[in-house]
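Hey, I'm writing a tutorial for new members on how sequence and structure tokens pair up, and I'd like a real worked example in the thread rather than a made-up one. If someone can provide the structure for the chain below, I'll link this post from the tutorial.
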Amino acid sequence: MRRMRNVKIVATLGPASNDYEMIRKLHEAGADVFRLNMSHGDHAEIKVRHEIIRQVEKDLDSPIAILADLQGPKLRVGTFAKGEEELVEGAAFRLDLDDAEGDVTRVRLPHPEIFAALEVGAHLLVNDGKIRLKVTACGADFADCEVIAGGTISNRKGVNVPDVVLPLAALSDKDRADLEFVCQLGVDWLALSFVQRREDVEEARTLTRGRAAILSKIEKPAAVKAFEEILEASDGIMVARGDLGVELPVQNVPPIQKQLVRKCRAAAKPVIVATQMLESMIESPMPTRAEVSDVATAIYEGTDAIMLSAESAAGNYPIEAVTTMNNVAVEVEGDPTYQDIIEASRTAKRTSIADGIVAAAREIAETTDVKAICCFTQSGTTALLTARERPRVPIIALTPLMGTARRLCMSWGTNVTLTGEVERFKMAVVGAARAARILGLAEETDQIVVTAGVPFNVTGSTNILRVAPCEERLIFRTDPE
């Protein structure tokens, strides 16, 4: 299914988008990737949603990527005798391992690993940062705190610890069970929550055994500090601004977003900007002007994808939310300033033959009347390198592997086409020309750029480029093979 934009749209499924009709409409409206949130819904519900997506994919003959988002370790306080208490700024409050129900002076925090890592002066954030505590004394089983920002604290509210790297595995027992389940289902991407270090990614990669690509969610200060190593170990990145904005001052998030997007682009790895992009559309058919500007900013930065969370999962207007994102993307990408910004932020990182080939393909396409860049790819690497160049013409990725086709649905500007196994470059050119015509990206009188690796079906062997006509008769007449 050809899109009239380059940025991709990720839509989260949930109670508001559970059935075949709605999921199909979301895809037709513009959703390229569907996110399954493992924090909500049991395995039976997740399986049904997965099956529906695959049925929509089959019926529309359009590859769709499925992203399973693991919950990650959740840190929560215990319960209160009264259900809730009001903490006053300046008051003393203790967190400990005592099983007794909490009151206005203390509550259980059933995570000894937190106490082991805390230091005096560290901050703890409760209930999405609405309550802020500063540690004044701590030990193996307690933390005495001063209330810096007060408010209502109630049963099992979440706790964030932004100042320290916690000795917690990124994968809980639930995550491990969920990981194996979704890998057996056949999801394409696996999102890791609360990543802190490279080792978190490597652990997940060992467990997936190549069955899904790994996407690391950046939502902790520790992940920002270790980003270079995390990026190197990951297949993609999500800038998860929700928890990131809780654990860091909110004014820090926009520059971090911009920095992370640029680093992902330079590394040729897909990046998603997520959280609260069209939050008001949970209840309103129209977004705020600020939300539209937020979506537009991410697109101007050159992000690969933008994501809807509750807007499509539980909101009243899921189709309108996707349509709004699509319309904003089309408008932004049609702005001449957009191309100026994209080209000015392009980072040259060419250390291989494949890098040189895709850079040459972009330059040829932009200095001549070439309609598309067509790349044959096994693993998807050539398509990702081509997308890194952010060319002005469409990218067509041709692959014989459905798994590769689905994963590339996350990649900027990539139109994915399934093709048979190719053994000769002549047939690759013929297949590329047909795909360009079928997608409506070129006419028989037009020319395209074709890149491939010879010998074929070998990962990472991109070494040939050709400018070719789109008319099959001319291809066979002019090709000496």
